[in-house]
Amino acid sequence: MMLSDPSRKYRPFPQVDLPNRIWPTRTIDRAPRWLSTDLRDGNQALIDPMGAEKKNRFFDLLLKVGVKEIEVGFPSSGATDFDFIRGLVDSGRIPDDVTIQSLTQSRRDLIEKTFESMAGAPRAIVHVYNAVSPAWRDIVFNLDKAGVKAIAIEGANILKEQAAKYPQTDWHFEYSPETFSTAELEFSLEVCEAVMDVLQPTAEKPLILNLPATIEAAMPNVYADQIEWMCRNISARDHVIISLHPHNDRGSGIAAAELGLLAGGDRIEGCLFGNGERTGNVDLVTLALNMYTQGLNPGLDFSDIDEVIQTVEYCNQLPVHPRHPYAGELVFTAFSGSHQDAIKKGFAAQERQNDEIWRVPYLPIDPADLGRNYEAVIRVNSQSGKGGVAWVIEQDQGLKLPKRMQANFSTTVQELSDSTGRELTSNDIWEAFEKRYHLKGDGRFRLIDFHETQSQRQKDERIFAGNIRIDGVEQSVSGRGNGLISSLANALQDALGGPLDIIDYSEHAIGHGTDARAAAYVECRVGDGPILFGVGISQDVATASVRAILSAANGA
Ligand SMILES: CC(=O)SCCNC(=O)CCNC(=O)[C@H](O)C(C)(C)COP(=O)(O)OP(=O)(O)OC[C@H]1O[C@@H](n2cnc3c(N)ncnc32)[C@H](O)[C@@H]1OP(=O)(O)O
Ligand SMILES: CC(C)C(=O)C(=O)O
After folding, report:
1. Which ranges carry the Pyruvate carboxyltransferase domain (predicted)?
2. Which of 233, 139, 221 is nearest to 181 (CA)?
3. Tell me, what's the ipTM?
């Protein structure tokens, strides 16, 4: 049960004493080095860790996305990881510009196994870790600070020794003071310096110092302070690459990574869609696309986001949430009326503007950039409005309904969605449209044929003469007017029992070239009856106009 006084059990996280911090004044103006740890930190958190087939598929996906540093596993954990990594090396299928990395505890037998797994690769990173924070010192290792520091120093010495044993590989090293974000900064620094003393990194061959938020325990500004503090206090800043490894226990892994970059981080370790221990590692997809939407090329390519999702879901056997930033199935979809209206207007404005700058309301990124189409952007349910319904009709049928007709049809859709209580498909909407405006010849009036001629009697007078099925009986009707529309309106007067007043008429082409068709819309009323709307579609404009009037007349 939750405590009424949680301070009995939990302590607030201490702030970092960094009065003149500069990270809040910075912006992210370049992409970091990316390391995917999907095949290690992600994999170790799966219900069923990946086997060789899945690991290979994931590896190929990472190459396709453009990740250049890949933590391929924990080779001392067992044969699955070891054999997969050896297989990668032996098959020679690691591209020249890609470096593999493996993780190991700071223990001789495990480090030796790790070297064995990657020996022969042109270039490889061995990543050694040991936890440094008080709870781990006391509880896991039962060692004091000196004892924990000794684990790191010993590990670094073994790294040097093993690298010398396999000179054909260009070895690089990464050291993680695991649990960095919950440890005393001075102690993390002391341990990192001790590792640097052993490994003697240089600007040409730097040591990767990975500063993980192994468990996210504070707000992201605290992590940024910790990173800036380390960057300022490390003795040879240009001899180390500062790597960030945020987890997401408080749900602010992305923010921590971004603020950590402002604070001096050079490299990010994370997983696609944020898989990983507990609530996950930081999500590389979101981070990269956050940069992209600020106009910065992140260096990772998610042009086919659906393929990425498919592969990751298959390999991890975990779903990507439908509302996952940028990627989820629903993140580009608006159901609600005012959002749909704004998006529809936004797309229209986007077409009119003469630059590429993205300004569509409610959509932070162009779905097309991620290989998504616009069809699913607007979906219709009881929360939808006329703009959304009109969008669906326009996308599917090419009909650009006049505004008042949108409102007219929207009432039909509203009734339908209220009565069905579910999302309406574009098929549902089109069927309702055909029914409402009698497009299938099911009303009182149905056109058989017609012709329009110029009056001999009076200049500017047109004559409509046609055969129309009225109430099931074919009849010849004719009427005179100053154009096709008014002459037809007059021709129908008797059958309608009053004059047909045309309030508004418009038309447009559907499609281009020889396949183009015409759509005509009419708003009218019979006498002082209710407003009627009609629509007609045909290969030629005149027939479309006649059909539009009959469609409206059918509503009378
Ligand atoms: C934050 C992270 O994600 S760290 C990465 C975690 N990933 C994994 O653990 C996945 C792969 N791990 C494994 O397959 C196994 O744990 C192995 C092969 C690494 C080790 O297996 P085992 O030795 O059988 O077991 P186990 O992991 O429980 O070892 C615990 C021992 O290692 C010590 N240890 C733990 N971490 C470290 C470390 N980084 N450096 C040195 N010793 C360590 C513990 O103190 C403990 O010592 P004790 O037995 O004297 O108490
Ligand atoms: C081994 C380290 C980098 C780790 O995975 C963590 O701290 O989360």
Report:
1. 32-306
2. 221
3. 0.97
